[in-house]
Write a structure and sequence with these properties.
The complex is a heterodimer of chains A (106) and B (693).
Chain A: E1 2-7, H1 16-31, E2 35-40, E3 46-51, E4 54-59, E5 71-76, H2 80-94, E6 99-104
Antiparallel strand pairs in A: 1-5, 1-6, 2-5, 3-4
Chain B: H1 3-27, H2 30-51, H3 57-76, H4 90-101, H5 108-119, H6 124-130, H7 135-151, H8 161-183, E1 187-188, H9 194-210, H10 215-229, H11 254-269, H12 276-289, H13 298-311, H14 315-329, H15 331-339, H16 352-363, H17 367-380, E2 382-383, H18 384-403, H19 439-442, H20 467-475, H21 482-499, H22 510-521, H23 526-542, H24 567-574, H25 581-593, H26 597-601, E3 608-609, E4 614-617, E5 620-623, H27 626-636, H28 670-681
Parallel strand pairs in B: 1-2
Antiparallel strand pairs in B: 3-4, 4-5
Classes of the chains: A alpha+beta (106), B mainly alpha (693).
């Protein structure tokens, strides 16, 4: 099963220690064969919306930036619980904040 | 399962390899390490539901398991207690664990089961489900594997540089077997069992980080990533198999393709020559790079298969090469290559050979032969969707035949009025063999070979009747006893499988029969060959085709009794200090007593009469002489009861009884004793019996 883990942005800037711990964590997950892809996301980005025939393109940043994702990890594990367990370890490293885990179908 | 239980299960799958690896380093025994880790798991199952899941569940399990290991070492004192905490990196533990699980002393099935259990953290039930086995069987297989590792003193060391390549190929083989079992499920209704593919990929990716300098590991990972990238497109909407050239390439997983390319690049970066997995991955890359099936670089694929066949001269690879050649240069060239494989015994039950030949014949516009090949392939696979696919191809050929004139030469035209063998009753009592004659040996005597006497004939069979129908009628005769039919069926079934049920009898030639016989029984014992030959002669006579057996020569049967070993060799063997005392005593006792191996292994210490040099077992006396008498006291070593010959290791808790009350060990098994003797001498235990018995 594949899961997409996404974390929301936080106010606190990451320090050296966090970077080091994250790098080690990413390495460990890669070595364990569960991490397929990961990356950080630019804040805001571009908003595309369509209504009828009309497609609107809006550049960020947006007011609801807090709800957007700041980074993602695509993992492949055997169960939802394994995904939760990995996310638990991730949250311990990054500190206060929120993540979502969604199963990827197909 | 409660949430906590599911969490525990998840933590176990993620952490068990490291925990067991770390413990094995302490106790030098993977079986014991796993038991200790399981103890920790049980503790978690007891404590976490009430106390809550600890902050760092992996560390919790590790600490508890390690504590048990130290307790165990203190109690048993078999292993020196490490004074300081060993500080080898944890990753090395996992690598060693993989190597031990894939140890060459284990049979392939045991390696697979043990790797899935100890490295991937699967339960016996999960392994059983994945391989469609029953759970007790998996449990026994794993227990036996642990026992073998302990008996062999496999230890827990990383193989040295010299042994690494060989050991690594054993590991890669295990991973690829697991993957293939998932990807091309050999049985059942699911074409792909994703859980197995995922485990194999996970273990492969893990291994690639542990031994990054080995190109074949990256090659295998690349191959698995690329094959998995196609899994969604490989199954049609109704669950049917979609062939590579018909797949919707838009459904191939680009992420996995990219990972496959990356892995192959890593293999290339090692600068070492490509091995079989790298070459197979390179072939998979050719497919992945082709935007449409028509743009596939088949000449390159054929070249890669050439290189692969150089490294691994396997018939399956040659079959794949035939496919590539057929695509690159035309079906007639492919068919020539495929036909050359018909005589290979390794492929005789392999459904892809008739499958490939059917496809090539269809492309050559020979639908009647193609249909036969598809139907033959159909009988050889147990996989539901593959059967449906082959059925579909066979039906297509039937439809083609209905619209086109028959391309096959008309079968023997001068007997159109012959009765249909399916309905024609054979005259009762006119059997090829006299009733009551032993089926297996009957054909071996000269007289029974004379089956083509007039009494055995049913007359000439319609040559247009198919092999399946005629063979069915032959076996369905009322005048044959059950045992004869059983014996006949073996021969006839082989013929039907090799040639296809729909082959008209008129097209069956002595030459074809000879090829089938050579492939199936060419290397069998003469007695076996002659038995099948006799059946074929009987069959030929019955259906009026006595010519069928003309290509089969009777083989001389040599009687080879079990040859006893020379006495001088035995004396050396019994005195050989390098062999274990138990082994020497057993061998010496078997030789001196001439008793059956089972009887000797059944001996109990309390039943031995050391003064009279004899023991009663199963109502018979086993008596020995001075050689055994010298060795026995040391072997008994103060024991007063229980099995005389014991295993090296304690059985798993809960294993059935019959154990030594002093050591808790079980009784030595026949299989194990035979194995040990074979390994030490290359002979079988029966050869220990003297000739003048």
């Amino acid at each position: 099963m594949r899961f997409l883990m996404m974390q929301k942005p936080t106010d606190t800037a990451p320090d050296q220690k966090l970077f080091a711990e994250m790098a080690a964590f990413v390495e460990e997950l890669t070595a364990a064969g569960v991490l397929l892809a990961t990356g950080g996301l630019e804040p805001g980005g571009v908003l595309m919306s369509s209504l009828g025939d009309e497609i609107t393109v809006t550049d960020g940043p947006f007011a609801e930036a807090k709800e957007a994702a700041a980074g993602f990890a695509l993992i492949e594990v055997g169960s939802r619980e394994e995904a939760i367990e990995l996310a638990r370890r991730f949250r311990k490293i990054v500190g206060d904040g929120e993540s979502t885990i969604q199963q990827v179908f197909g | 399962m409660s949430d906590v239980h599911r969490t525990i299960d998840a933590v176990w799958k993620l952490e068990s390899a490291r925990i067991i690896g770390g413990l094995a380093r302490l106790v030098h025994d993977v079986g014991l390490a796993e038991e200790l880790a399981q103890d920790a798991l049980v503790a978690a199952l007891e404590q976490w539901p009430a106390a809550g899941v600890p902050d760092n569940p992996g560390a919790w399990l590790t600490t508890v398991a390690r504590r048990r290991a130290v307790d165990h070492i203190r109690r048993s004192r078999t292993v020196p207690l490490p004074l300081t905490e060993p500080s080898a990196p944890e990753q090395d533990d996992v690598l060693r664990l993989i190597f031990v699980c894939c140890h060459p002393v284990l049979p392939a099935a045991a390696r697979i089961a043990l790797t899935l259990r100890l490295v991937a953290g699967l339960s016996n039930a999960e392994i059983a489900r994945a391989f469609l086995l029953d759970e007790p069987r998996v449990t026994r297989r794993i227990a036996a594997a642990k026992q073998t590792l302990a008996d062999e003193g496999a230890g827990f060391t990383r193989p040295d540089a010299e042994a690494l390549a060989g050991r690594l190929s054993s590991v890669l083989e295990v991973l690829y077997l697991v993957f293939n079992e998932g990807y091309a499920a050999t049985a059942g209704d699911d074409l792909i069992r994703g859980d197995l593919c995922r485990e194999a990929l996970r273990l492969g990716r893990m291994l690639a980080e542990l031994v990054p300098a080995e190109p074949e590991v990256h090659g295998l990972v690349a191959l698995m990533e690329l094959q998995t990238s196609r899994s969604a497109a490989r199954i049609g909407p109704a669950g049917e198999l979609v062939q590579l050239q018909d797949q919707n390439r838009g459904r191939w997983d680009p992420l996995l393709i990219r990972r496959g390319f990356a892995a192959l690049l890593r293999a290339r970066e090692t600068g070492k020559p490509p091995g079989p997995y790298v070459l197979q991955a390179a072939i998979a890359v050719c497919h992945a790079q082709a935007p449409t099936a028509a743009e596939t670089d088949w000449p390159r694929i054929a070249k890669l298969y050439d290189a692969l066949a150089q490294l691994q001269p396997s018939p399956v690879i040659r079959l794949n090469r035939a496919v590539a050649v057929g695509m690159a240069y035309g079906p007639e060239f492919g068919l020539t290559e495929a036909d050359a494989l018909l005589a290979d015994p390794a492929l005789r039950d392999y459904h892809l050979l008739p499958g490939v030949r059917g496809d090539l014949l269809a492309r050559l516009g020979r639908p009647a032969e193609a249909r036969r090949e598809f139907e033959r392939a159909l009988t050889l696979t147990r996989n539901g969707p593959e059967q449906q696919f082959l059925q579909r191809r066979a039906t297509e050929m039937t439809a083609l035949l209905a619209t086109a004139p028959p391309s096959e030469p008309a079968a023997d035209p001068h007997s159109p009025a012959a009765p249909d063998p399916a309905t024609a009753p054979s005259s009762p009592g006119s059997g090829a063999l006299p009733p009551g004659s032993p089926p297996a040996g009957a054909g071996d005597g000269g007289s029974a070979d004379g089956v083509d006497g007039p009494a055995g004939r049913v007359g000439t069979v319609d040559p247009a009747a198919t092999l399946g129908v005629v063979a069915g009628a032959f076996l369905g005769r009322a005048d044959l006893d059950v045992a004869t039919v059983r014996s006949y069926r073996q021969t006839v079934t082989r013929l039907r499988r090799a040639l296809g049920d729909s082959l008209p009898l008129g097209l069956l030639t002595a030459e074809t029969v000879a090829t089938v016989f050579a492939t199936a029984w060419g290397s069998a014992a003469p007695k076996t060959w002659n038995r099948h030959r006799a059946t074929l002669r009987s069959f030929g006579a019955w259906c009026g085709r006595s010519d069928l057996a003309t290509g089969l020569a009777r083989r001389a049967e040599v009687v080879s009794p079990v040859a006893p070993l020379p006495a001088a060799d035995l004396a050396t063997l019994f005195g050989d200090g390098r062999q274990a005392l138990r082994e020497r005593t057993l061998w010496c006792l078997l030789h001196e007593s001439s008793a059956a191996v089972t009887a000797v292994l059944a001996l109990d210490v309390e039943g031995l009469d050391l003064d009279d040099r004899r023991a009663r077992v199963g109502g018979r006396w086993v008596a020995w002489r001075s050689g055994t008498a010298r060795l026995l006291p040391e072997l008994i070593a103060g024991r007063t009861s229980g099995p005389l010959f014991l295993t090296d290791r304690r059985p798993a808790p809960g294993a059935p009884g019959d154990r030594c009350p002093h050591t808790g060990r079980g009784r030595l098994s026949y299989e194990r004793a035979e194995y040990l003797f074979k390994r030490a001498t290359g002979h079988t235990l029966r050869q220990l019996r003297p000739t003048d018995r």
